[in-house]
Amino acid sequence: MTENLKVEVVGLNRVKGKHLIAQVKLTNTGSEKKLSWTGEMSDNTRPIGKIRWASGIGVLDAQARTWILPYQPADFPCLCSDQDRDDLDHFIDPGQSISLYAVMPAPSGNPVSTTVVTPVGPPMVDVPISDDPPVTPPGMTIPDPDAEPVTTVTRRLVTPSESLDRTEETADDGTDLHVSLSSDVLFAVNKATLTPKAKTILARTAKLVDASSGASVKVEGHADSSGTDAINDPLSTRRAQAVRQALSTVVTRQGVDFQAKGYGSRRPLYNNDTDEGKRRNRRVTVAFAKPQPATAATPPTTPAPGTTGLTGTGKADGQPISMEITGLRRLAGDLGLLTYRITNQGDSEARFNELHRAQDWTSFKRRAASNITLTDVAARRQYLPARLQVADGDSVDSYCACTDVSGVRLGTEKFDPSRQREFWSLFALPETAGTVNVKIAGFTDLQVPISSVRGYSTW
Prior knowledge:
- Residues 174-292 form the OmpA-like domain.
- Keywords: Cell outer membrane, Membrane.
- Its main location: membrane.
- With 459 residues, this protein is mainly beta.
- The protein has helices at residues 83-86, 183-186, 196-211, 229-250, 275-281, and strands spanning 5-15, 19-28, 35-36, 58-61, 66-73, 91-92, 97-105, 113-117, 124-128, 150-163, 168-172, 176-182, 216-222, 257-262, 283-289, 311-316, 319-330, 335-344, 350-351, 372-376, 381-383, 387-392, 395-400, 414-415, 420-428, 435-440, 446-449.
- The protein has five helices and 27 strands.
- Helix 3 packs across helix 4 (229-250).
- The model is unreliable at 453-458 (pLDDT under 50).
């Protein structure tokens, strides 16, 4: 995202079997301007004002659906390179490099490699983890995480998908499934009696519950903000009870405990300022343990994307804009990493603002390049960018697991002539699909092969 800033992972060491030390080298490859790195490498899921230093260096534990960030000590923003503690300059001179570190929990399962994440480019996959002691450059002292009280900082990675007929939306956090059924389809306006079409929708949900091993199923009714609590609370409760009763008669697995509760309009998933947001908030959510596949799926082997026609063209401010998909790679845990580049092919500056104009952009705390969908045409299912969830008491903020276009990235959608930028997004992927239909902003839909070719250590 930042011209002339090169990022290299130079060390990834597991310490004491439970900690991970990441070392990153930043290089200013330009010849004229100094580069500020402190905002560039900061965790953008923190509140504004608390985004500091190298706090954005982390790893993706794909199997556990967890985004792991540096520990939080009591007296510093993070257990990572910090200007005050490590006597670092704000800027990198042309042609010069600086070394940074971040100390965090090791990913689960004792893996031999992991995916390293930074705020400045796509995740770097299959980076080897060493169990040898880290080798540090002269002058660097990495703090011991066991020498002081530290707090673990993680973000839950949730992957949403929805049926093409918009009757249901599913959020998968790796542990539980949350199936949100559209109240507009289940019920008539202001009613709690299930419609005839509801039986078909609930039959699919019942199959998922039957495939789960969880002992309990939570059914939650939700409303938009149109009515008062006196109306929304009892209506959402009655609707939850109606779905609970219907599900209990079609789920065949024995010993399942069904619970129903209404929350009125107090737990919106989307902004209620738009009709689409209100529609999505009118829902009944069925939550239960994620079913595990009976056997490991073997996706078809496909070639890696490259210069094979996976391109599109468009216009921005009258200038020709091109897009090229550079990869769609299958990661662990049925996750997928999509990478693509946007280039201004014209001779004048242009703003390409379509990347953040997604239908569900209001579900995110900050603006991001989320206007992308992946579609499994055969299964009639659409996949949306993954979300990083940050809990704060009873509330949960969501950030797109994709390229940020706000904060220090506010100018990301402005392209000088011939300017090119690399973008990325994380998605869930269908278990057995070899290709999916990819739609990026207003560019033409493309049939993109899913590849297992991986291995990035620099950007």
